Amino acid sequence: MECKKCKALIPKGEERAHKNDVLCEDCYIDVLSPAVFCDPWASFTAESFKKNNRTTAFTESQKIILKVLRETGGLDSNDLAENLKDQISWEDGERDCAAMHRMGEISFENRNGAVFICIKE
Length: 121
Ligand SMILES: [Zn+2]
Prior knowledge:
Elements: E1 16-18, E2 21-23, H1 25-32, H2 40-51, H3 54-57, H4 60-72, E3 75-76, H5 77-84, H6 90-103, E4 106-111, E5 114-119
Antiparallel strand pairs: 1-2, 3-5, 4-5
The chain binds zinc ion (ZN).
């Protein structure tokens, strides 16, 4: 399987599905990482986060994500999306995750080859 983004050959079992694309693990982390995430909304949130105190800076959907992550101890994006689907769309969830990663609230961890989204200790 070829990575949609960097065209690298992905070893069997290490494909990561992102939306309708198949990505290698590096690109997948890239996509989820706010380092390459240039959503003005995310920067805006990060800015307002600095100005306000921690509890009021979170949006409702971010609070939901943090609650799920706290209860589960971290989930990969598929499981997180599954957990959130009744409450928020994964489009928003993904954006919130990137924004909160930028705030330093959550981290992306590699656990047994899967990318897990976790609360940063
Ligand atoms: Zn790639």
